[in-house]
Structures are given as C-alpha cells and as structure tokens.
Amino acid sequence: MDWIVAPDPDGRALRDVLPSMLAAMGIDRYTDTIGIPPCRNALVLLIDGLGHELLRAHESDAPFLASLQHSPPLTAGFPTTTVTSITSLATGRCAGEHGLVGYTFAEPGGGLLHPLSWTARSAPTGAEGERASLMEKWPPEQVQPNTTVLERAVAAGVDVRTAVPPHFEGSGLTRASLRGGRFRGVREFGDLAAELLDAADSPGPTLCYGYHGGVDLLGHIHGPGSIQWRMQLRQIDAFVQMVAEQLPPGVVLGVVADHGMVDLDPAEAIDADSDPALLDGVRLLGGEVRVRHVYAHPGARDDVLAAWRDTVGERGAVITGEQAIDEGYFGPVSAAVSPRIGDVLAILRTTGVVRSVVEPGESKLRGHHGSLTAAEQLVPMLVAGG
C-alpha cells in the first residue's frame, strides 16, 4: 500500500524531539538525532493540527514558519491523533510502549476509554450511555507508567515548565503524559508568549513545552484550508515570529505539530450506525473517523475482518491488530498494551467511518486525522534561534 507512511524508527519522529533538545542543551545520556543547534535553554511549541503538507500548501499565510523549514519533516507516529502524539512527544516512546493507542480504546472494564476526558462508555459497541470517570478505577499513571522525558529532565537538574491551557491541570492526559516540571496555565497568545520568553530568559538549563490548539479546532469545524483556518494560521505565524525575534542568544525555539489533517465531506463518509454489517460481531468500536479500532466478540474476528474489508474496499486498509503490530505501526508493543489494540483496524485513505448516532458531534466535523497518509503522518520540525 504505497499511500501508507509508516512511523519513522530511526530518530526523526515526534518522540525524538525532547531527547534531541536535551542533548542540544548538553544534558547527559541524551542523543540529538534531529539536528538541534547547541543551546542553554530550549522551547518547544506544539501547534496542534499543523501538518507538514498543510504548511507547504499555505506558505503564503505563514511566511515566517515557512522560512524555518530547513530540514525534512518528522513522522508523528500511529495513530496520528493528539492523545497519542502528545504522549509520544512527552515520553519519548511509541504508542505500543506508552499505551495511549488512540482517540478511544478498550479499557479493562469492558468499555472505551476517552483519554481527553478520562471517561469511558460501557454500553455495547460504545453506544448509548453516559460516560463514567476512570480516574480512580484506571488511573492515568497506571495506564501510562513509563517515566516521562520531563520527569527525567527534572531529575537531571533541568528547570522544566509546561505552558498549556489552565483546564489541562490535573487532567487524565496531563497526569499520563506531561508529568514532571512546573505547570503554567496559559489562556491566550499573550500568556503563552510571556511564559515562553520567561523560560528563554532563565539562567538555565530550562526546557519549556508550550501548546496551542486553535489551528486544530478550526480545521475540525471548518476544514483545513478554509478561510477560518487560514486566518488562524496567520495569527500563529505572527505569534511565532514575535517570540522568535525576542529570543536571547543561546536559546532555541522548536515548532512541531502532533499530526496533520484532511478535509472530508461528512455526507460521503461510511456510517457504521446505518450499516448493520459493520457492527455484526463487534463488541466495541473505538478509534476515530480516520482510524477505527474494531474489537470483536470471541470467535468473530475473521467475519468482522471480512465485513469491514467488503465495505471499505479500496478506500482504505483493513487489517488485523496482529498485522499492525507486526508491521511496526505501534512500535514495540508491551503485553499490557496489546489488549488495547483492536482485533481489526480500519485505516482509511479517501474516506472515514463515522457514527452518526453514537458520535453525532464528531460525525459532523469537516477536518479529520488519525490515519497513515502523508497529510496526517508528516509534521514539521521548525527551528529558530540557537
């Protein structure tokens, strides 16, 4: 399948960014596999949803960001979704090791964990029913027990800061992925700029991670490339330029993304809730529109695989979970993580699989990600300062 862009295993993936930054800062036991200029302090800004191909296609709206493109893009990992990518960035590990294997995935109680809210739906196939918190029953530190890069940096004497929206404090995803350092809640561009520049001015060594989600939000609602999306991109471009121009000597700003995005017409998507064949033999249906974890009842996997292949056809790849693991899409997979991966995986190329009844909000969105196309997998690695 020549359209599939597999995650990079050789040092140019999103999970390699923080170790490379720490190596550039001279912190022992880290290796720079990306090519970061030597520095005393490092800032890492993640622009949610700004894929490499989107940036290239809209360079006129982001001339400063485009001017920083001096190296090949990184691969985000699999699936190309925020919870997985941020955890890969923060832990330096693939999904098969850190365990956050998708937008939603199977949890031990028989439901689907939604990591953004750390809640689960327990009804069959994730259907009707209120979500219940799993913060106590399946704590984030148990789901993702590996020490984060941020924790290891703190132990090495680095002043680590996390500049993200205030409501992220204490969230399941923060506890699972962004443990370590000082939490710095930021609300708008001004807050974020101030935190980044304060870290830049620190005597060091200081590592600051910042996040902005506006491009992703408007891409989901209006579609990547829409006028709303382009206006947001212009603001991000001006913001990055403002910060970069105020960097003191010896400080590096790295700009990355967690995934790209594709534009889909919801009316042309496959609707699992209106096609009984796609739910026959299925106990849970997780993932998201562009990549689905399909969990089969005992003994039903082969029938489920055949039904999904018949429906998806050439619009994507439908494979077993074992094949996805063997192909290395999740990286090394631990025994604890393996049950979280679907018995069948639907990786979409030209369409998506919506759930108009169970996921009415997500099913109406215009922009999506999660799959292994270049538009979703490739993310920029932009560097200023040094």
Automatic annotation (TrEMBL):
This is Alkaline phosphatase family protein. InterPro entries: Alkaline_phosphatase_core_sf, Phosphodiest/P_Trfase. It comes from Saccharopolyspora terrae. Signal peptide: none annotated. GO terms for molecular function: hydrolase activity. It comes from the Bacteria. The lineage of its organism: Bacteria, Bacillati, Actinomycetota, Actinomycetes, Pseudonocardiales. Gene3D superfamilies: Alkaline Phosphatase, subunit A.
